[in-house]
Amino acid sequence: KLLSDCKRISGKPNLYIPLLLNGRGKIKFGTNFQNGVSAAHYTYSSYNYILSMYEESEVNFGHNVVMANGTTIQAVSKINIGNDVMIGINCMLVDTDGHDLNPEKRMTGDIKSAPITIGNNVIIYYNSVVFKGVTIGDNSVIGACSVVTKDTEPWTVYAGSPAKPIKKRDSKRILESAQKLMNYE
Fold it and tell me: What's the pTM?
C-alpha cells in the first residue's frame, strides 16, 4: 500500500505476495481474486504490478481469478479479464506499443493502444505475453512462453511466438468432468 498510487480501486484482492497498483485509472477486482501463489517460485522475491495509466484507463478482473507471481498488467485503454481465469508466473498483458515506432517521435508521439479481453475459463501459462487489441476466447489455453498478437478462438489451445492454434479442446468431455465434480458429495 505504501508504494501504490492508484486511488480508484474497487474490490478486495487476497494477497499472497505484494501487489503494486499504479496510475490514475480504475482497477476493479471481482470476488475471490488471488494475487500470487505461495507454492510457486518467486514467492519471497517478487510482486505483481498493475498499471491503469490515465483517467479513462481500466483494468477489470472477473470472479475467481488467480494471478501468479511476477505478473505485469499495463492498461492505457482497457483490459478486461473474465471469470475463472488463471494467469501464470511472469506473464505480461499490455494494451499498448508503449512508444511510437518513429525514432523522432519515440518520446513525444502518441501511444497507440487497443483493449485486451480475456474470456472466461482461460488459462495463460507462464512467461506468456498478450499484446494490444487481442481477445482470448472462452475456455482457451495459452501455452507457456507464448506471444499472443491476434485473437484466439474459444475452446482452443494456442502456443508459440507468435501464438498459433495447436488443437481444439473437447468441450463436451470437459463440461461433463466439471459437472461430475460439482455434483460430487
Answer: 0.88
